[in-house]
Amino acid sequence: MDPVTDDLGLLAALGGGDAGRHPLPVRIRDALVVRIQRGELRAGTRLPPIRALATQLAISPMTIAKAYKLLGAAGYAEARTGGGTIVRLPSREPRHIADGPFPARPSAPGNLSQLLFELARSPGVIGFTGNYPAPELSDAEAFRATLARLTARPCESWFRYDPPAGREELLARLPGFLARHGIAAAPADMLVTSGAQQALDIVVRALVRPGEAVVAERPAYHGLINVLRAAGARILEVPLLEDGPDLGVLEDLLRREQPRLVCVNPTFQNPTGITMSREKREALLAIIRRTGVSLLEDDHSPEMRFSGEPVPSIRALSGPSDPVFYVRGFGKVYVPGIRLGVLLAPAATVPRLLEVKATTDLQSPAIMQGALAEYLADPAYLDRIAAIARAYAERQKRLTDALSRALPPETEWRIPEGGLSLWLRLPPTLDVTGIYYPAARCGVTFAPGEPFYAANPDPRTLRLSFGLTPPELLAEGADRLAAVIRSMAQSSVPASVMV
Amino acid sequence: MDPVTDDLGLLAALGGGDAGRHPLPVRIRDALVVRIQRGELRAGTRLPPIRALATQLAISPMTIAKAYKLLGAAGYAEARTGGGTIVRLPSREPRHIADGPFPARPSAPGNLSQLLFELARSPGVIGFTGNYPAPELSDAEAFRATLARLTARPCESWFRYDPPAGREELLARLPGFLARHGIAAAPADMLVTSGAQQALDIVVRALVRPGEAVVAERPAYHGLINVLRAAGARILEVPLLEDGPDLGVLEDLLRREQPRLVCVNPTFQNPTGITMSREKREALLAIIRRTGVSLLEDDHSPEMRFSGEPVPSIRALSGPSDPVFYVRGFGKVYVPGIRLGVLLAPAATVPRLLEVKATTDLQSPAIMQGALAEYLADPAYLDRIAAIARAYAERQKRLTDALSRALPPETEWRIPEGGLSLWLRLPPTLDVTGIYYPAARCGVTFAPGEPFYAANPDPRTLRLSFGLTPPELLAEGADRLAAVIRSMAQSSVPASVMV
């Protein structure tokens, strides 16, 4: 077993800027895991000595040592008596359902998220990774028919540049849509965005300068964390309790750190599924009003409620002079992949937001905006969306019934009142990285919890999203996952004793 | 004539962040011009004393003094004997064609670009502001037909979330499209973006950190300048000569400032229309290779060539290991408002660019990508685009013939080899701000040159874009503009003696 003498492909994997990325040891571990999973680094191979690799990559030996330690904790390496670190494969994999053909299309070297995406699409795998609806259980078909009607005849006005705020037809239609959710808003208070993700990005780019503090929930939507990192924000985390963020911690942070912005996702929070109580929303609004800090409210899918009473959004509870930025996308419930959303903002900030929107992509596609305006004109969508919510409620029940039967009792989780995800915390001896590949090989995938933490991720957490999972596979997927967890928990040792 | 005692609406106009905006005196002047044009500040009104307004806005008196001076230079104010500054209207307006109804929809306070957009759409006005094709003289109809065909039947795969790089059908089709322009590229070298604007934004966000230097042409596309400002870049300007940027100045800047990126728009540059010679492209590529600095090449519309020999893009001249980022949109030539483009990048940087793309908007709309792939599958578009270029060549000739006859000889301009714009420099006694509103009232609008400068704008420059102008109005528009320029030049005094 000769030691590896090249750079392990790490130079390429670590190239480019690093703002908004994971810490270096994590990235090195991920790149090594990818190479091991691909068979490019075989079990038994000796990894390069720490100092030699550090010199080759021009980084600190401490960083390499940490990366090797993380690799060991994930089950992919072990220390050898007499020195050196040896590649191994996590060996405690109960059975192999989907052992190949794993993705053929080459991904970028060391790009873990791309590999996860590919794994999730592999044949035979039951995927719990995509937190959005299946096309057949969304209103995509009605939108398709609208688009077909609109494009059936020549119409030049669908193909032109418009002002960055959005097309007038759509801006005129959105207040009625929002009013059904108790939100009063005029066209002058809003911009059309290319999906909710862009709305988050626009607000943060407009408000936050590098080094400024921003409060986010712990855990939070990874797309928000990426936006905050890209802006150079200092992210302050507020723990989520059962009824929403810990307002005591929040008030303390507001006093000590004077953050620029507080970001919340109060309904069916992504990733935890937690819904903030009405009392807490009102208390949060009172804090916002008292301190003057701005609030970013991501409200992705209030329609997907399966139990409990609807709670108004914070924007619905607030007045026009409150510094509340409200984000609503149309992909999570209505039409996946449509890439349209709406951003509501205090009127005085709209000019600045429009500048950022124009800098970002000038405008959202005119024809898509026109089709959404047409789609929203027929209130028949309300009944269809309600029926879709009932179907997802049924799917959530199938999945949670199966999990309740099969998961070991040390697994921590709860059933959210809505949304297309569940949040699990593994038994104490387990680490998600250690079960991800065994689970994929057993034909079930999920989203590791790590990307949902701005810092110090809880390595035991994971998200199961069932929007894309065929209903007849929900129970089988739950069984596969529970089997892997039980099997790994029985034979595992705490990660801290490895390497 | 009592002095104005409120804050002139300036607090609202100056609110929000100010990254990526004009200097404060310019913004104050713009806000005042908007209020004067709207009739909210009438001729003869005395503006607040400099110190009082400075205190109210909590900014330096110097800034207010500069703003008042700029307002005077633009013809909207004059110093009063005995002190004070009085609002006036530029009085030398030869005739009024489009005196009302000026836009009714309220714009944001002090938002000059929004007002310009509204003026350009006013009835009776011949607009030279939009630098993109008219829907009827683009290939929008063919794209519409493709979209209609695609959406005619239920098809779930058009409505889903895809990887951020883009849909496979489109990624597979783009190499063939690019090969027709002499560019060799594989799907792994590219990302689909929401238009060229987003591609510029993604490259700069991925590569440039706040405070880092970036070289841009002087003048440059204002959308690029906005992107660089938003990233906190220190913008270094390289003057444009007749055959492209001054490479002597560039080499000096590269030595002294070690910029992260050099940005060029070598073919039919926006706004000047200048095309970089092949020799200069090769010399620039040699500089890039020698110094290792990255190059961002914006290639918006090489198809729109009306005279001279085609010149290969710098990307076409370069090899796979060169740090060249190449941006191509489909809105400027093919389908206005489609918001799709492609970004070619060195393969090692693609993972980082994909992270930024995902942070920005996750992905571009799936159905639009699918329709573009279908559209590009039928090479019949080549003949249609060639016919469109011939039609625009004819329109450029009509416009430039009329301008040649009518403009005073002190106006500096030239006829570009292609593209949908002309760049003019007014006679020495004139300032664009001074003629913009008189011209609009005489029924002709254009883009002031100011936004195309990162610093120290040349106040005599303006851009005429004729892509949207009906052909029968081109000569009349040229005559109106030339009449305003002649009239104002005859009666004007140098701006430096005002206030």
Oligomer: homodimer
- Low-pLDDT runs of 5+ residues of chain A are 15-21, 91-110, 493-499
Tell me, rounded to a whole number, the average pLDDT of chain A: 87
For the report, how would you describe the main beta sheet of chain A? 8 strands, mixed
Q: Based on CA inertia axes, which overall geometry of chain A fits?
A: globular
Chain pair with largest interface:
A-B, 82 and 82 residues
Number of helices of chain A: 17
Helix share, percent of chain A: 40-55%
Q: Which secondary-structure class do the elements of chain A indicate?
A: alpha/beta
Neighbour order of strands in the largest sheet of chain A:
4-11-10-9-8-5-6-7
- For the termini of chain A, the CA-CA separation is 19 Å
Task: State the total count of DSSP E strands of chain A.
Answer: 15
Please tell me how large the radius of gyration of chain A is.
24 Å
Estimate what percentage of residues of chain A fall within beta strands.
5-15%
Could you characterize the architecture of this molecule?
The structure is a homodimer of 499-residue chains. Chain A contains 17 helices and 15 strands. Residues 15-21, 91-110 and 493-499 of chain A have low confidence and may be disordered. Chain A is an alpha/beta fold. The first copy, chain A, has helices at residues 10-14, 24-37, 50-57, 61-73, 112-120, 140-151, 168-179, 195-207, 222-230, 247-257, 278-291, 314-317, 350-361, 366-377, 381-406, 432-441, 474-491; strands at 77-79, 85-87, 126-128, 190-193, 213-218, 234-241, 244-245, 261-264, 294-298, 324-329, 341-344, 412-413, 421-425, 444-448, 461-465. Chain A has an eight-stranded mixed β-sheet with strand order 4-11-10-9-8-5-6-7, sandwiched between helices. Helices cover 40% and strands 13% of the residues of chain A. In chain A, strand 9, helix 12 (314-317) and strand 10 form a beta-alpha-beta unit. The two termini of chain A are 19 Å apart.
